[in-house]
Specification:
This protein has 7 helices and 12 strands. It has helices spanning 3-10, 36-44, 67-71, 74-88, 103-114, 153-164, 208-211, and strands at 17-20, 26-29, 31-33, 48-54, 60-65, 95-99, 117-124, 127-130, 141-149, 168-177, 190-197, 200-201. The N and C termini lie far apart (36 Å). The strands form 3 sheets. It has a 7-stranded mixed beta sheet. Strand 1 and strand 2 form a beta hairpin. It is α/β, with parallel strands linked by helices and 221 residues long. The model is unreliable at 1-34 (pLDDT under 50). It folds into 2 domains: 3-69 and 198-202, no CATH class; 87-195, 3-Layer(aba) Sandwich (Rossmann fold), CATH 3.40.50.2020. Helix 4 packs across helix 5.
Length: 221
Amino acid sequence: MTRLDRTAAAGNCGKSVPEADSNGVSQKRPTTQMSGDLLALFRKTGALLDGHFVLRSGLHSREYFQCALLLQHADIAAKVCGSLADKLKDFNCDTVISPALGGIIVGQEVGRSLGKRHIFAEKEEGTLVLRRGFEISPNEEFIVIEDVVTRGGRVQETIDIVRARDGIVSAVGVIVDRSGATKPDFGCPFVSLIEMNVETFPADKLPPDLARVPAVKPGSK
């Protein structure tokens, strides 16, 4: 059993276990709250990455969940997103909406599981907008779906799109919530399959061990 397996089995979410890298530098590794089966799926698909990553928020991290590697397998996508849909089934919902690009597959699968239509918002000149003839009616009830949330900026933009058209956001659902202690307040229930407490750093305050590793930005642009 690995360190992450032991942490998941103990349900010890919110604490970090220091480890030393090859240079003897102590590193805090994320603790994760998830079932062993779901953790195994992330490992099986290579979706749990270690390195130096730039998140959509602009923050830097040692860990990254590349959900696209998980969701490329249709059977696994249906299983994982179906589990998320089960946690959301008691919320009022006429339509599922998600931000492109990362939220599209998750939103489509959750919508299918709930028997609801799915629409998405996409970037136009750096801002999420509703395009392609998608419409939101007054008092239409939505669940907003995303793959991963750190600060929740794209989710909040999607919520703003719904509310600007007098729609109602009943809940937000994500596969991975890595916001930690800075959990965003979306003004509605926030549901996830995985909660992680992961260290993140501004670009000008990187620890020495991370600064030595070239950064990559693997997520949506």
